[in-house]
Amino acid sequence: QVQLQESGPGLVKPSQTLSLTCTVSGGSVTADFWSWIRQPPGKGLEWMGAVRHNGNPYYRPSLKSRISMFRDTSKNQVILQLNSVTPEDTAVYYCGSLNGAWGQGTQVTVSS
């Protein structure tokens, strides 16, 4: 059974780069299709992007200029990087697989 665990800094300052890690256990990061979504406080879920089986990513258009997703196959992880963050990027961030496995989420607050 595939399990996912998100990790990263709980607090990031405005204009900095947010980097989150999704560690995959019980399966290979190369064997599935991985997504990141987030939920800002008081709002609905927002799909951010995904990494395909071949490792190629695609992103939500509104985030495309400052987002990057990739796999670290040596560590069996999926990485999310978001540049130039603002307080509007404050949210709970989740990673998930096409097969339906999802992590518990990690809270990120953008504040000076």
Molecular structure report:
With 112 residues, the protein is mostly beta strands. 0% of the residues lie in helices and 48% in strands. The protein contains no helices and 10 strands. The strands form 2 sheets. The chain has a 6-stranded mixed β-sheet with strand order 2-10-9-4-5-6, with no helix packed on it. Strand 4 and strand 5 form a beta hairpin. The relative contact order is 0.33.
Q: Can you tag this structure with a few keywords?
A:
single chain, 112 residues, mainly beta, 6-stranded mixed beta sheet, 10 strands, globular
Please provide a brief summary of the model.
The protein is mostly beta strands and 112 residues long. The protein has strands at 3-7, 11-12, 18-25, 34-39, 46-51, 57-59, 67-72, 77-82, 91-97, 106-110.
Write the layout of secondary structure elements.
Layout: E1 3-7, E2 11-12, E3 18-25, E4 34-39, E5 46-51, E6 57-59, E7 67-72, E8 77-82, E9 91-97, E10 106-110
Parallel strand pairs: 2-10
Antiparallel strand pairs: 1-3, 3-8, 4-5, 4-9, 5-6, 7-8, 9-10
Number of helices: 0
| Overall body shape | globular
Using only CA atoms, what is the Rg? 13 Å
Q: Could you spell the SSE succession in H and E letters? A: EEEEEEEEEE
Assign the structural class, choosing from mainly alpha, mainly beta, alpha/beta, alpha+beta, or little secondary structure.
mainly beta
Sheet with the most strands: spatial strand order: 2-10-9-4-5-6
| Beta-strand percentage range | over 45%
Number of strands: 10
Helical proportion, percent range: under 10%
Low-confidence residue ranges: none
Mean pLDDT: 96
Give the CA-CA distance, first to last residue: 40 Å
Strand count, sense and barrel status of the largest sheet are: 6 strands, mixed
